[in-house]
């Protein structure tokens, strides 16, 4: 007796639905319109990805610009400010001190 497990059944059912969807698309749009529809879909996808890359680029540029315009405080001043706020400064990096000072302010 041949036993079929659940994954095989779901794969078979999934394939049947895929075939049904393809047949419905062919009936709705006709076989002559499918290549045009696929091209339009590909162009839309490309335009979306291009827009996404542009937005990511603008965000990176804005972050770099913001980071470069922030005034940098040398370590001695940073330590004095941190000590003035009651923060222990021993063994901490400049970045850790900046974070703690920012939290205190």
* Helical/strand content category: mainly alpha
The biggest sheet amounts to: none
Q: Tell me the helix content.
A: over 70%
Distance between the termini: 75 Å
Mean pLDDT: 81
Q: What is the tally of helical segments?
A: 4
State the domain count: 3
In percent, how much strand structure appears in the residues? under 5%
- Oligomerization category of the chains in this entry: single chain
Could you name the ranges where pLDDT drops below 50 across 5 or more consecutive residues? none
SSE ordering: HHHH
Q: What general form does the structure show?
A: elongated
Radius of gyration: 30 Å
Give me the count of strands: 0
Key phrases:
105 residues; mainly alpha; 3 domains; 4 helices; 0% strand
Characterization of this structure:
The chain is mostly helical. It folds into 3 domains: 1-31; 36-70; 71-105, no CATH class. Helix content is 77%, strand content 0%. The protein is built from 4 helices and no strands. It has helices at residues 6-29, 34-69, 75-84, 94-104. α3 packs parallel to α4. It starts with 5 loop residues before the first helix and ends with a helix. 1% of the residues are buried.
């Amino acid at each position: 007796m041949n036993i079929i497990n659940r994954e095989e059944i779901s794969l078979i059912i999934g394939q049947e639905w895929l075939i049904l969807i393809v047949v419905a698309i062919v009936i709705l749009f006709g076989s002559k319109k499918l290549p045009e529809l696929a091209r339009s879909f590909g162009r839309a996808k490309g335009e979306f990805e291009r827009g996404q890359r542009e937005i990511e680029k603008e965000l990176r540029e804005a972050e770099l610009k913001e980071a470069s315009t922030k005034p940098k405080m040398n370590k001695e001043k940073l330590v004095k400010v941190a000590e003035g706020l009651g923060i222990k400064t021993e063994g901490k990096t400049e970045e850790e001190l900046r974070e703690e000072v920012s939290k205190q302010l």
